[in-house]
Structure formats: structure tokens, C-alpha cells
């Protein structure tokens, strides 16, 4: 059993220990549950909120918890969750803008990780709502949130406390190349992406940091102006641009939505870059390369039908707008691609 908390109260620690005992005694049953199922174990209510490659439970007793178990068992996802929690405690323990769960428990032998609840909402939801409704101080909170995100992420990358033999599972360049091969159609933007990939534009990004590996805004919790990272199963040693480009690309993609309020989005994006750079410097060329590749990947996945009718924040995107963004990024017309953004 790994205890990965920063500071536990006695009552929370006691409840966590009792829950771990219950989980380990009923793990086979818990691992096979379907979405929506509710189970009562030792006066704790277990509710399945996700059931795919991972089973995720929301647990209610005196406190609220989340339990994550790979549905097929296996050590690697939990080893990475534990490595992620350890890296956070080692690098962000004193970061005022970061909130670590009060209690974290992880077991490789029983293949699960248990977190106390983090109050807040996913950053993508906060971002979209704050952009559309910037009054009542929301615009200011949005900028503070992305400033805290940049600083925490920069500190995480700078500290690099990960074991070097634990390599992050995702490689954006390889992912784009592999996905592009599956497309059986052709258009001008696909040809442009293919030329970009196979030309002299792509510069290797060194693996210098511990990275989250899947830092889309859905895996960032925002509450009380602080941020928290969740879901570390892709983490490891890798390129910081893998992480840095995720939330940046998601913000930029809102420009493909007709009428999306870009001004608060551009201000939040600028604050994110500024805060990160003040903590851990980056190469502008590499950052733009990874943003271009990530947005290009999204376009290719649309053509492959991965998203059905593609939407962002529930709003349909304009493919012509997305094509224009990609074309501007690849041609190096950054001011048009990212108006009002300071990189």
C-alpha cells in the first residue's frame, strides 16, 4: 500500500484505511461492475460512474472518494498513477495555486488507486462557461486559473522527479503519422499536413521532464482558483510540449466555432503561456509545432468519423474555420492563427 497524501486528518486517514480493506476484500466483484451499478460495502456507498477500460466509483461514507481500477487488472496503469501522485507531492507540495487531494492511496498488488474528492469542475467546462459569461469576476478567475495552471505545470516539468525508465505512453508525432495513414481520402489540408510531417519542419523535442501525458482540460480540475491534475495513467518521462500543447490546442480550437468569444480565451491562453515560461522556459518553435500537430490530429480524426458530428462545448464547429487555422499555423502566419495571443 502506497500512502501518497500531503497531509491527512486522522478521521480521513482512518476512513481511507477502512475503505482500502473493503476494496481489497471485494476487488473481483468491484472490477466487474456495470455503469450505474450501486453497491453498499461496510456502510459505504459505491456508485459506478465510468465503466470501460477502467472502472471508476464515486464512494460516499463520511467523506467522498473516487476509486479507479483497471477493468482487466494489471500493474502498469496503477504504477503510473502512483508515480504521478509521487511526482506531484515532490514538486508541487508548496505550490499555492495547486490543490492535491487530501488523501491518496494506491496498491499495485490489488491494482487500484483511491482519492479523496477534489472540489471543483473540469477545466474545459469552467473555460467555456467563463468565456461565454465573463461577468461577475469570471474573466478574472479564468486568468488566475490559467496562470496557476502554467506555473504548476512549469514547476512539474522543471523538477523532473520521475524514474527515467518510466516512459510516457504517448508520442504525438507518431500518433499523427499513424492516424494519417488510415485516411483513404484526400483534400488540400490533408496534403498540407502530410507535407508538413514529411518535410524539414519537424524538429525533435527532447524528453527532459516528467509529464502527465494526457493533459487535456478534462483531466484538470478547477476550483477556488486552484487547479488539480487527475488521471496519470499515461505519465512518465517525456517531452514537456506533449503536456503544454494539450490545453493550448483545446483553447485555440474554439476559434472554429462561429461566434465563440475569443477575447477572454486569448487572454487566458496568453496568461497560461506567460506563467509557464516564467517558471520553465520553452522554445516557441517547438511549442507551435506541437500545437499544429495536435490540431491537425483532431482534423484527421474528424475525417475518420471518430467524433460523429464534431462539436466543442456542445456547439458545432465550422470545418472551414478549422482548415483555416491549420493552414495559418503550417504557413507560419501565427498572428492570424492566434490573434491577440502572446507566446
Quick structural overview:
This protein has 343 residues and is α+β, with helices and mostly antiparallel strands. The chain is built from twelve helices and 14 strands.
Largest sheet: 7 strands, antiparallel
Please state the second-level CATH architecture of the largest domain: Alpha-Beta Complex
Distance N to C terminus: 43 Å
Q: Would you count the extended β strands for me?
A: 14
Q: Largest beta sheet: what is the strand line-up?
A: 1-6-7-5-4-3-2
Shape: globular
Strand content: 15-25%
* Overall pLDDT level: 93
The oligomeric status of these chains comes to single chain
Instruction: Please give the share of residues in helix.
Output: 40-55%
Low-confidence stretches: none
Determine Rg (CA atoms, Å).
21 Å
Task: Quote the CATH topology of the largest domain.
Answer: Aminoglycoside 3'-phosphotransferase, Chain: A, domain 2
Domain unit count: 2
N-to-C SSE string, H for helix and E for strand: EHHEEEEHEEEHHHHEEEEHHHEEHH
Judged by helices, strands and strand pairing, the structural class is alpha+beta
What is the CATH top level name of the largest domain? Alpha Beta
- Full CATH superfamily name of the largest domain: Aminoglycoside phosphotransferase (APH), C-terminal lobe
Query: Treating each run of at least 4 consecutive H or I residues as one helix, how many helices?
Result: 12
Q: What's the topology here?
A:
Blueprint: E1 2-3, H1 10-25, H2 27-31, E2 38-41, E3 44-51, E4 54-60, E5 64-70, H3 76-91, E6 104-107, E7 112-116, E8 121-122, H4 123-132, H5 138-159, H6 172-181, H7 188-198, E9 209-211, E10 220-223, E11 226-229, E12 236-238, H8 240-253, H9 262-279, H10 284-303, E13 311-312, E14 315-316, H11 319-331, H12 334-337
Antiparallel strand pairs: 1-6, 2-3, 3-4, 4-5, 5-7, 6-7, 8-10, 9-12, 10-11, 13-14
Amino acid at each position: 500500500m502506497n500512502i501518497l497524501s500531503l497531509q491527512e486528518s486522522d478521521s480521513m486517514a482512518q476512513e481511507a484505511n477502512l475503505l482500502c480493506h473493503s476494496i481489497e476484500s471485494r476487488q473481483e466483484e468491484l472490477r466487474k461492475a456495470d455503469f450505474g451499478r450501486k453497491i453498499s460495502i461496510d456502510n459505504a456507498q459505491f456508485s459506478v460512474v465510468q465503466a470501460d477500460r477502467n472502472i471508476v466509483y464515486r464512494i460516499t461514507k463520511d467523506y467522498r472518494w473516487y476509486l479507479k481500477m483497471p477493468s482487466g487488472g494489471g500493474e502498469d496503469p496503477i504504477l503510473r498513477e502512483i508515480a504521478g501522485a509521487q511526482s506531484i507531492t515532490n514538486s508541487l507540495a508548496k505550490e499555492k495555486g495547486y490543490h492535491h487531494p487530501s488523501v491518496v492511496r494506491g496498491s499495485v498488488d490489488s491494482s487500484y488507486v483511491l482519492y479523496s474528492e477534489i472540489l471543483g469542475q473540469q477545466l474545459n467546462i469552467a473555460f467555456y462557461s467563463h468565456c461565454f459569461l465573463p461577468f461577475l469576476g469570471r474573466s478574472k478567475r479564468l486568468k488566475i486559473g490559467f496562470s496557476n495552471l502554467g506555473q504548476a505545470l512549469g514547476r512539474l516539468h522543471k523538477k523532473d522527479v520521475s524514474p527515467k525508465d518510466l516512459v510516457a505512453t504517448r508520442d504525438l508525432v507518431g500518433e499523427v503519422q499513424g492516424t494519417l495513414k488510415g485516411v483513404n481520402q484526400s483534400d488540400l489540408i490533408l496534403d498540407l499536413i502530410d507535407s508538413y510531417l514529411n518535410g524539414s519542419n519537424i524538429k525533435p523535442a527532447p524528453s527532459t521532464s516528467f509529464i502527465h501525458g494526457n493533459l487535456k482540460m478534462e483531466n484538470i480540475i478547477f476550483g477556488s482558483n486552484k487547479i488539480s491534475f487527475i488521471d496519470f495513467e499515461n505519465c512518465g518521462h517525456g517531452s514537456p510540449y506533449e503536456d503544454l500543447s494539450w490545453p493550448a490546442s483545446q483553447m485555440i480550437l474554439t476559434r472554429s466555432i462561429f461566434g465563440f468569444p475569443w477575447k477572454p480565451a486569448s487572454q487566458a491562453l496568453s496568461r497560461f503561456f506567460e506563467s509557464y515560461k516564467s517558471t520553465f522556459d520553452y522554445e516557441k518553435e517547438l511549442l507551435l509545432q506541437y500545437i499544429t500537430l495536435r490540431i491537425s490530429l483532431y482534423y484527421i480524426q474528424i475525417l475518420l468519423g471518430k467524433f460523429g458530428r464534431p462539436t466543442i462545448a456542445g456547439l458545432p464547429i465550422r470545418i472551414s474555420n478549422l482548415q483555416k487555422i491549420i493552414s495559418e499555423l503550417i504557413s507560419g502566419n501565427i498572428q492570424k492563427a492566434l490573434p491577440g495571443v502572446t507566446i
